[in-house]
Amino acid sequence: MAGVFADEGITGTSTCKRKAFLRMIRQYRQGKIDMILAKSVSRFARNTVDTLNFTRELRSLGIPVVFEEQNINSIYPESEFLITLHGAFAQAESESTSSRARWGKRQAMKSGHVAMQYKQLLGYEKGPDGKPRIVPEQAETVRFIYDRYLAGDSIREIKAALEGQGIPTVSGKAEWMASHIRSILTNEKYCGDVLLQKNFIQDCISKKVIPNTGQLPKYLIQNHHEGIVSRETFDAVQLEMARRNAKAGDTRKSTPTGRGKYSGKHVLSKLLFCGECGTAYRRCVWTQRGVKRPVWRCVSRLDYGKKFCTQSPTLDEEPLQQAILAAVNAVMLDRDTLARQLTAVMEWELAPMLGESMSLADIDRALEELSSQFNSLLAEASANPAEDYTERFRELSESTTRLKERKAQLEGACQEQGRLQNRLRAVSAAMEHMTAAMTEWDEEVIHQLLEKVTVLSREKIRVTFRDGREIEQYVAQPKRRKLA
Q1: CB under 8 Å to 439, separation ≥6 — which residues?
Q2: pLDDT (tens digit, 9 = 90+) per residue, 75-131?
Q3: Domain final residue pick, 110, 145, 171
Q4: Which UniProt keywords apply (predicted)?
Q5: How far apart are CA 59 and CA 254, in angstroms?
């Protein structure tokens, strides 16, 4: 006897993970097996395609498969119909079992049952009540990642900072993966919420996991556990990530008037724009006679030549930075006024929507009342089929639609307010730590204070601050032959 080939606890819907089955396949292909005895077709495989493919291959080699329960010998061609029939039954049984299991899991999701993968969740461990409990040391790492991202760092820079400080991953490794950092930044569990069924298994045969983009309902449980970061901070990170992704675009080249690829390494890649075509500027390093010279050039000019932008100048980095510092220092001479204006602008943006007298709770209560009226009217219409209730149904439907639109507007405004509050705190902190005048280039302070820098010519830029103030500043470019 060549041996017993049994895979305990492994589904037969796929052969790729059945080590004993694959070992049997290798041995019969090597001529070490003359006959295979199987208890039933379902024990051989629960995938009709696999069952037929392997029994046909075995028949071509002159090796029979005898299924004891069905009394079928695959060496005979006429047995293929019965094998197909019983194979289909076995596959259908697996699909039915899988369907029941999926239904059970979805019912558990509806009832709020959450299964947490603590081994992969930095900052949490299972508490005595079964809910996530914060691990203080790891939570500081999570907050550091969120703070650095909102400060303008790219994921690559955050990775370098974590590794430079010797901070380990959740599994204790010294090296961080960019995908792991991104998953931390997009995981709603860190603000105390849980979103269930973000992915699902396509079917029990392929077992392919695909993202849930609307094929199935998702279940959001808010305030499920204590968050490591505030919901406002989490929402601000999602908005910032969406902004960076939109800026990156779908191709290596920018669109003719696009903003180019996002870069977290240099703050000017987010702030510096061409005054002629509106495209972002990109940092380049030229080497002349062995000397490296960092310059900034219009992305459209780099990618398309003079097709869309004919006059954009090339700016040397050092005089450009000095010009921006001069503009900042000019404004900072009246630091108190700038602080008041910044605060006033953002607080005005944080003010409630004009003309909006209802809160989200008021709208939810009104929607519940409309739903109750709709159900009552539906029952009344069922009891009196002769009456025409069309107009009353239409009025209820229109009222519900209007309330839902107001709710969506309010929710969007609340999310924007959270982002502005974070910006206000960051700007205030940046100004508090500034000296009377900036003498050195500080990426983080520039990121917090400036909204935009527009290149007007080789010798002039327009610096726009977050409070809306604008200053046109002279740029002392070196007397070199113009190469742009």
Answers
A1: 325
A2: 888 888 888 888 788 777 777 777 777 777 777 766 667 778 888 899 999 988 888
A3: 110
A4: Coiled coil
A5: 59
Query: Considering just the CA atoms, what is the radius of gyration of the chain in Å?
Result: 33
Q: Are residues 159 and 282 in the same domain?
A: no
Q: Please tell me the total count of domains within the chain.
A: 4
> pLDDT digits over 195-216, tens only?
887 777 766 666 677 777 777 7
> Which tokens belong to 149?
């991202």
Which residue has 């039933």 as its token pair? 40
Amino acid at 360: L
HSE (CB half, 13 Å, CA atoms) of 239? 17
What three-state secondary structure class fits 409? Answer: helix
pLDDT of residue 123: 93
DSSP character string of 47-58: -HHHHHHHHHHH
State whether the Cα torsion 433-438-439-445 is positive or negative. positive
Please name the residues in contact with 435: beta carbons below 8 A apart, sequence gap of 6 or more: none
Same domain for 147 and 236? yes
Distances (CA, A) of 437 to 42, 318, 337, 431, 440: 79, 18, 16, 11, 9
Q: What is the DSSP letter of 363?
A: H
Residue recorded with tokens 């950092």: 181
- The one-letter code for the residue type at 75 is I
